[in-house]
Amino acid sequence: MEENLKIWNDAKRIVVKVGSSLVTNEGRGVDTEAIARWTAQIAKLQEMGKQVVWVSSGAVAEGMARLGWTKRPKKMHELQAAAAVGQMGIVEAYEKSFERYDIRTAQILLTHADLADRERYLNARQTLTTLLDLKVVPIINENDTVVTNEIKVGDNDTLGALVTNLIDADVLVILTDQIGLFTADPRSNPEAKLVEVGEAGEPIYEAMAGGAG
Q: What does the domain layout of the chain look like in residue ranges?
């Protein structure tokens, strides 16, 4: 625990990924109270001299709320339309909340192609580094409006990890509605146990990995 605390205290560059259920209050629309709490914490981290990148889900869920859809669509173009509508609400909520602390934000939409192509990778890296040096908080999401299943990053947990490597961040924090990493899905497996401490790269964790959720 002391070692983990030291890593956090020494960290200069932090990536935080927040899940859709937290951003949109379980799909009911942007949770402005939650965003207000997070922005207050990020403002404090900036005061401590740390740089923060925010990877935010929730665009599709917010888009569904704005469009009045009660059931998640299955067609790709409908999902992309919902993401396009919802992204407006997500970014607006963050921008308004950060304004209270005189912190500027920037929207960054990435695709797998941006991170797979060397030239685009380096350009994204330079842009993010410049924004951080300007004390701007980048709000990152996958560009759901243009990607297809074949070229998706996968989910924003993966995107958060890729961004962490992209900018050489010291810490990746994943905010979720679960209390941590389990040996199985605790919602369907009562035998699932919480993993208190784990080392990245251990085969046991790769074997545990599954699909979304």
A: 2-24+42-58+103-177
